[in-house]
Amino acid sequence: MGKTHPGIDAALRDFLLQQKVFFVATAPAATDGHLNLSPKGLDSFFVLGPHSVAYLDFNGSGVETIAHLRDDGRIVFLFCAFEGPPKIVRLHGRARAIEPGDPEFETWRERIPAGAAVRSVIVADLDRVSDSCGYGVPRLRFVGERDQLQRWAERKGEDGLRDYRRRNNARSIDGLPGLRRRDS
What we know:
This protein is α+β, with helices and mostly antiparallel strands and about 180 residues long. The protein has a single domain (about 5-170), classed as Electron Transport, Fmn-binding Protein, Chain A (Pnp Oxidase, Chain A), CATH 2.30.110. The protein contains three helices and eight strands, in the order βαββββαβββα. Strand 6 and strand 7 (about 90-100) form a beta hairpin. The N and C termini lie far apart (about 45 Å). The mean pLDDT is about 95.
C-alpha cells in the first residue's frame, strides 16, 4: 500500500510531472489561524532534485500560502492520479517564496511563460516523500487548461496587476504579512 521514499526518483518524477493538478497545503504557526489548501495547475510544477521542488505562484485573490511560508515555512503537496492507475503522492517540507525583485527570481525568468501573471516562485526543500494507493480517488478526464487567469492578467496589464497585488496580497486572512514587494 503506502511507502515512504528516500527522495524523488525518476518514476516519481515522471508521475508528478504528468499530473495536471496538484494541491498545496500550509498553515500559520498560530494554532488559531486558518489552514489553507489550494489547487494548482497550468503546468507550473518543477522537480529540482530528489529533495527539492518548485512551482510558479500565479496572481490570486489571497496570499495565504506566501504568508504562511513567511510565518511558519511548512508545506505539503498532494498529487492524485485522476487518470491511469490509482496513486497519491505527498511531498512534505519547508518552503519559501521568491518574489520579482529578489535576486534569485532572475534565475527563474527563462522558466516563466511570456506574459504569465507570476507573483512568486515557491521553492520547497523536502523532508518526506511518500505515496499511497489512491483507491478512493475518482477517475476524471482532463479536458484542457483554463485560460481565464491569463486573459484576466492581460486585461489588467502590469500597472493593474501591481495595484491588484497592493490591494489584495498585502495580508493574509489572519492578518499575516503577504507579499513583500507589492510594487513589483
